[in-house]
From TrEMBL, chains A, B:
Protein name (record): Homoserine kinase
Sites where the protein binds ATP: P98, L99, G100, S101, G102, L103, G104, S105, S106, A107, A108
Gene3D superfamilies in alphabetical order: 3.30.230.10, GHMP kinase, C-terminal domain (3.30.70.890)
Lineage: Bacteria, Pseudomonadati, Bacteroidota, Cytophagia, Cytophagales
Top-level class of the enzyme under EC nomenclature: transferase
Length: 317, 317
């Protein structure tokens, strides 16, 4: 097999933040947003291998060694897979979202990295085949190779991870008018803690309720039927347990719903929360109300409002 | 509120058999088939109230008292609801499918009854509003007012019962070329036993796998994507427990899959099994192979092959 030689000396790629779980779809649903996201710049080097030469915006918290960095490991695994360990790149990572926020920060970096190197080498693999390498970044960051952030960040849109063995990722069409509000309260929740407090058993009753909502959300998105989307954005299994890790969760959620959101829940393992709305104005208002709920107990926050990102990563100037 | 007076002296209605659960969707999925089904004939009477004057095809096993019969109770509850206890009808029920078979026999009778009386009275209620009365028939037959048989029998097509409180029933479009094979082995499984052996707890791991398949099946039907339908027709929660009640279940299932079925599982609480295929010839072949599997241990069976019934009940001559 012959691949193109690197013809691009330098490339910058943006990969989007993602909301995993999406209320009822623990470990199987995720979608990408237009904003925020992470950016990586790769520059060709004569010296084989991957080097993280700088990380901007992480306040020094992320490892600079390529094999301990999600983007670095994703690029390394990719280069090994395509048999191009002769390639050398220097990477500068621009973190443009909070770390450990439940917004898929590690996934966005890994996706940006692997998408960028694939572009740089003349696209030897189709985008969908980059997924396993981005998942290696997640394995490094979270301890297991989850796909519910990397898959939507890489493929764009709303994604179902139907199965892990074998990996089966399905893209679901979403209505044009669907806006996401993300609110990141300035508190920290450790992803591993968030997983640890979950129970290993679910009642059959709650399993049935959750399956009904999973089916309803997919049908609601595909029809589209906003009422059905709204009724289905309900999580009876994970949210009741994890909500206790987020101060003012119930108040922020009620603020979102009272201001017209279709639904509101935890983004990934939190502490960020997401809400979906039918128009940009509502989504803005929902964000302001949620921020106010946090602020009422002295917690500052960042809010982001954007459409669903149907494109995934993109090359930027 | 004024309703039309009965203008029809006699009416016959066919209501279809149904496959509940549909592999991954325990208690939430169901679809109607074109064949078999039950038929009811109502004749106007001067004497108020509902009388079951005859039942054909039940070998004397079903109660003749209206308030102990699923069709009778559905009609009675309906007449009470619309305030027409002055109406009198004599009903003849033609059971055209095996009882206690997992094919929604009690649901089909209740749906036929309530659809027929509503037609007879000039359709005072839209079809979808007949659901609660048909569910009363199910409460009588099964001990709880399940909707996963009555909803598809009444509405036709593939149905999701997203929620019971409040009742939220969603109709899902299915591809034109989707054929159902039903095989009813001549053994009996009691619905209450079939429910009793289920565990009250499900592992979170299996809940996630099942949710992935639930999402995959809805997406597969709506896209449509036959490969996705096939990969999603997997039940890791109920089938492994209930399969032990059906002798030769695994052999019959493998026979279906080996002969080209997209998937195969238990219909409702069994003992009938269903398979879905992409064309009528395959569905026929699948049925023959499944029957042969049962016959290899001396179990005779009936097989039915038909399209998905998108119409629901219909008036017949």
């Amino acid at each position: 097999m012959r691949f193109h030689c690197p013809t691009v000396k330098s490339i910058s790629v943006f990969a989007p933040a993602t909301v995993a779980n999406v209320a009822c779809g623990f470990d199987i649903f995720g979608f990408a947003v237009a904003n925020p996201g992470d950016q990586i710049t790769l520059t060709a080097s004569d010296q084989p291998g991957v080097r993280i030469t700088d990380i901007i915006g992480d306040e020094g918290r992320l490892p600079r060694e390529a094999e301990r960095n999600t983007a670095g490991i994703a690029i390394q695994t990719y280069l090994q897979h395509i048999g191009r360990t002769d390639v050398g790149v220097d990477a500068v990572l621009h973190k443009q979202m909070p770390l450990g926020s439940g917004l898929g920060s590690s996934a966005a970096s890994a996706v940006a990295g692997v998408f960028a190197i694939n572009e740089m080498l003349g696209r030897p693999l189709p985008t969908v085949e980059l997924l396993p390498f981005a998942m290696e970044g997640e394995r490094l960051a979270c301890g297991s190779a989850h796909a519910d952030n990397v898959a939507p960040s890489l493929l764009g849109g709303f994604v179902v991870v139907r199965s892990y063995s074998p990996l089966d990722v399905i893209r679901i069409e979403t209505p044009a008018a669907l806006y996401c509000t993300l609110v990141h309260p300035d508190i920290e929740v450790n992803t591993k803690d968030a997983r640890f407090i979950l129970k290993n058993e679910v009642s059959l009753k709650n399993t049935i309720i959750q399956m009904g909502n999973v089916a309803g959300l997919i049908a609601g998105l595909m029809k589209p039927d906003y009422g059905l989307i709204s009724r289905s954005l309900v999580d009876v299994i994970i949210e009741p347990v994890r909500a206790i890790l987020i101060p003012e969760f119930n108040e922020a959620k009620h603020a979102a719903l009272d201001n017209g959101a279709l639904g509101c829940s935890i983004s990934g393992s939190g502490p960020s929360m997401f809400a979906l709305s039918r128009d940009a104005d509502t989504a803005q208002q929902v964000g302001a109300a949620m921020q106010q709920a946090f602020l009422s107990v002295g917690i500052t926050s960042e809010a982001y409002v954007s459409e669903i990102n149907k494109q995934g990563p993109r090359v930027v100037d």
